[in-house]
Amino acid sequence: MIKGFYIDNFKSLVDFRLPPTPHQLGSFTCLVGLNGAGKSTVLQAFDFVGHLANGQVASWLKQREWKASDLTSRFLKLKKLIQFELEVEVPGEGRIVWSGAFNTTEMRCTAETVTVDGVEQALHIKDGQLLVAGTDSKPSVQYPVRSMKYEGSTLSFINVRDVHPALGVLKHVAANLRSLDLLSPQSMRRRAKEGADIGYGGERLGAFIHGLPAKDKAALTKALKKFYPQVSELSTTALRAGWKDLRIVEQYDSVQTAPSRLESDARQVNDGLLRVLAILSQVSMSKTTDHSKRIGDLGQSCVLFDEIENGINPELMQKLVRLLLDAERQVIVTTHSPLVLNYLPDDIAREAVLLLYRNSAGHTKVVRLFDLPSTQKKLALLGPGEVFVDTHLEALPAEAMALVKVQAS
């Protein structure tokens, strides 16, 4: 599980740490704040670090129609390095901290360190050499990274099976980070040929479901029925040239002797159902099995959703929030909806709801929403969502900055 995240010089994120110290991220986190506060940017920063581990930064930029120069903060115009730190805690492996500096000119990390439990260095770049700790049966390895051609992190090219086991765990967690901030029904209606994942916007949803084992497809159908009881089957077909077609089968009672069966192409299915299906496909599936058993048992990594309430009927929100709280995967969402907060138990809301705001310098910062004196007082009388409705968000940045100042003194 990801316990902490730090990034500096990424868009509006300057010296940004999530969550605010001394707290740690839990299995569910909800980000709130005004438009432009930086909520989507935080999800993009997680996604960026995940693609460093994959070595796929250029394709990630192309997908988002960005340039490398778009990544760095406008507040630090001459600074080309993006500093980051990802803290992961895994039972049996301890606490793994991956830190580094990504050079936007060279498109790779020119400094990296991985430490285990704050003592052991599993990976380190020094004097142009990448030093990687080995296992009991394999010696340590050195790579002359200064002369090597690679993209993103050095994790992208090392053979994790032959080196320190913590590196395999870290790469699995980081490379499986998924930010679905571009999720849209228009994309989910498209046909695709391959679907190792559902894609940034859900454009490979049909192909992804087509490739699921029968038991996983059945489990996904069962989960969808909790939201839409009329759904009886998720039907996928391989078409000519490898395209995959997704169809939703619904069963209704009929005035005739036999029940009526309605089969609809994904292009004809309502937006809300498609969005719920995409969310379910990411948070309610069985654990991954494409790695070694030791790594596979860790399950999948963190998944991030922007404006989780979009396109979903309010009557379904309680079920959705419960699904997110019970998910096998760690979940981070952003929301503008008080309904999302109102279905959170008070104790979870106190820890999990984080307010993003811009400080006086324009940098995105974060505090726990219910650490603020005004919201803390209201929470004693109202539900989390009611506090959210009863609060003027425009007034909170000043209160947050005052709280941070007091905490720092």
From TrEMBL:
It holds the Pfam family AAA_21. It comes from the Bacteria. Transmembrane segments: none annotated. Residues 265-342 form the ATPase AAA-type core domain. Gene3D superfamilies: P-loop containing nucleotide triphosphate hydrolases. GO terms for molecular function: ATP binding; ATP hydrolysis activity. SUPFAM superfamilies: P-loop containing nucleoside triphosphate hydrolases (SSF52540). InterPro entries: ATPase_AAA_core, P-loop_NTPase. PANTHER family: ATPASE AAA-TYPE CORE DOMAIN-CONTAINING PROTEIN (PTHR40396:SF1), ATPASE-LIKE PROTEIN (PTHR40396). This is AAA family ATPase.
